[in-house]
Design goal:
alpha/beta; single chain; globular; about 450 residues; about 35% helix; Rossmann fold; binds zinc ion
Length: about 450
C-alpha cells in the first residue's frame, strides 16, 4: 500500500471507531451536517444535479428523486465533478487496467455487473477510497478480530482477482508487508483452493457465502485442515443455517459484511449476531417500497436508496440498490449507535454442480461464467442449467462473436474444474426476460436432479 494512502486509511478508521461510542442522536447530527455539505458540493459542481434537483435544493432528502443505475450510467459525464472523467474513455481504459493503476494518476476505478447484469463504472479519489478501505477494516473491528501487524494475523481471501473488481482492489491496497496474505480466486477449483488454505493456515478468512458452502461440503469429507478465528462473509447475504453450521461443525464464527462497489461497506455484523450495523456515519440508507415510499422497521422493503455522504467525484444521492432488506425494530446489545439490518435478500449467487468423471460432483462458482460471458455480451447474459446440459442466453453479442469459440472456452474451463463435458446450446436474444421479482437472474438452475 502507498504510505500516504495507509496513513489516510488509518486516520479515517480512527475517526470511524470513535463513532462507535456516540449516541444515535449524535450520529444523526453528523448525517445532517454531511448531507448539507454533499448537496452544496453537488449543486455547485455537478451539472446533472443542478438540473435533477432543480427547484428542490431546500427540500428534505425524502422529497428528492432517486437515481437508478441506468440513470447513473446515462448521465455519468454530467454527474461527474471532474470534466476529465468520461464514461467511454474509462471503459476502454479498464479493459487494459492493472490492479495498481490509477487513472490520471489519481483515480481508483472499479466496475461491477451486479445483479442487473449491466456493467457500471465507479470512481474514487484518494480521500474517498481511504474512507471505503477504512469501512472494510472496521468490519474486522465489528467482528472482534484484531489485526496483529507482526506475523500473528494471517489473512486469506477467496474472491475475485479481476483487476476492476472491488475485492481485488481492496485486497491489493490493504496489503501490508508484515501481514502474510493469500489471495485466491473463487473461480478456481475448490479443492485446489483448500489445499492452499491448508498449507497457509489463515487466522482470518474472507470469502463469499457460496464459496463457504463449498468449503463446508469439503469439511464434511474431511479435507479441510485449517480453522481461522473468524470468517468474514461478503458480497452475498449468508443464511443463518450456513453460519450455524459453521459454528456447530467447524467451531468458527461467520460475520456478514454487506458492501457495494458504489459505496464501500453498507453494514456489518458485530459479535452479538443480532443483525448488521448500518454505516450511518458514512451513508444514509433509506428502506423503500417499489414507489419509493418509506418501509418501517420490521418490514421487508423492495430496494434501498443510498446517499453516500463522502462521495464527491460522482456524488450519489438516493442511489437505488435493488436489494430487499428488513431493518430491525430493536437496537443491538453491543451499544453501537447505528441502525440494524436483520435480513437481506437478493444477490444470492447460485453456483452450479456438475458430474465429475469419478462419479462425485464439482461445484462451479458463478464468477466462472461471469468472466467467460461478460467479454462476449454487450448487454447481459444468463446461464440455465437443465438436465440435458447448459443453455446460454446472450443479449447483443459483441462484433466477431463466435459460438464455437465460446463453447470451447466453456468446455475447457469446466474440464479444468474437474467436470465432465456438457452439452451446450447458445441462444442470441435482444433482451433477456427478467425473473418474477423484476431482476435479471444470471444463473438459473432447472436441473432438479443435481441439487
Ligand atoms: Zn452490535
Amino acid at each position: 500500500m502507498h504510505l500516504p494512502l495507509i496513513i489516510s486509511v488509518l486516520q479515517k478508521r480512527h475517526t470511524l471507531r470513535g463513532h462507535d461510542r456516540l449516541l444515535p442522536e449524535q450520529i444523526q447530527r453528523i448525517q445532517h451536517r454531511k448531507l448539507a455539505e454533499l448537496r452544496q458540493f453537488a449543486y455547485s459542481r455537478s451539472g446533472f444535479y443542478q438540473q435533477f434537483h432543480k427547484g428542490l435544493f431546500d427540500k428534505p432528502l425524502g422529497e428528492l428523486p432517486s437515481l437508478s443505475k441506468s440513470d447513473y450510467l446515462a448521465h455519468f459525464n454530467e454527474i461527474s465533478t471532474d470534466s476529465r472523467l468520461r464514461l467511454h474513455a474509462l471503459e476502454s481504459y479498464m479493459k487494459q487496467m492493472a490492479v495498481d493503476d490509477l487513472y490520471l494518476g489519481r483515480y481508483w476505478l472499479m466496475s461491477t455487473s451486479g445483479s442487473t447484469g449491466k456493467n457500471a463504472v465507479f470512481v474514487y479519489d484518494k480521500t474517498e477510497w481511504a474512507v471505503a478501505l477504512a469501512s472494510y477494516m472496521c468490519c474486522n473491528d465489528f467482528a472482534g478480530v484484531k489485526t496483529n501487524f507482526f506475523g500473528k494475523t494471517r489473512l486469506a481471501i477467496i474472491g475475485s482477482k479481476t483487476p476492476w473488481h472491488q475485492s481485488a482492489r481492496v485486497g491489493h491496497d490493504m496489503a501490508v508487508r508484515t501481514v502474510p496474505r493469500l489471495r485466491l480466486d473463487a473461480t478456481d477449483p475448490v479443492r485446489e483452493n483448500i489445499d492452499r488454505l491448508n498449507e497457509f493456515q489463515p487466522t482470518v478468512f474472507v470469502t463469499y457465502p457460496s464459496v463457504m458452502e463449498q468449503i463446508l461440503e469439503e469439511l464434511r469429507l474431511g479435507r479441510v485442515q485449517f480453522k481461522p478465528l473468524a470468517v468474514l462473509l461478503t458480497a452475498e447475504p449468508s443464511s443463518p443455517a450456513l453460519r450455524q453450521e459453521m459454528s456447530a461443525r467447524w467451531g468458527v464464527e461467520g460475520f456478514d459484511c454487506y458492501g457495494a462497489t458504489e459505496t464501500g461497506v453498507i453494514a456489518a455484523e458485530c459479535a452479538a449476531h443480532k443483525g448488521l450495523h448500518v454505516r450511518d456515519d458514512l451513508l444514509i440508507v433509506e428502506n423503500v417500497d417499489e414507489k419509493n415510499q418509506p418501509v418501517p422497521p420490521g418490514e421487508l422493503g423492495s430496494k434501498i436508496l443510498v446517499t453516500s455522504l463522502f462521495s464527491r467525484t460522482l456524488p450519489l444521492i438516493r442511489y437505488e440498490i435493488t436489494d430487499c432488506v428488513r431493518f430491525s425494530r430493536s437496537r443491538c446489545e453491543c451499544g453501537r449507535p447505528y441502525g440494524l439490518i436483520e435480513e437481506i435478500q437478493g444477490r444470492r449467487a447460485d453456483f452450479l454442480r456438475f458430474p465429475a468423471p469419478d462419479g462425485s460432483r464439482v461445484t462451479v462458482h458463478p464468477n466462472t461464467f461471469k468472466s467467460l460471458l461478460e467479454p462476449e455480451a454487450v448487454e447481459a447474459w444468463q446461464v440455465i442449467q437443465r438436465s440435458d446440459g447448459l443453455h446460454l442466453r446472450l443479449a447483443r453479442p459483441r462484433a466477431g462473436f463466435s459460438p464455437d469459440r465460446l463453447e470451447t472456452k466453456i468446455q475447457n474451463e469446466l474440464a479444468r474444474q474437474g467436470s465432465v463435458s456438457q452439452k451446450i446450446s447458445i441462444e442470441i436474444m435482444d433482451e433477456i426476460p427478467r425473473g418474477p421479482t423484476g431482476k435479471l437472474l444470471l444463473i438459473v438452475n432447472q436441473n432438479n436432479t443435481s441439487v
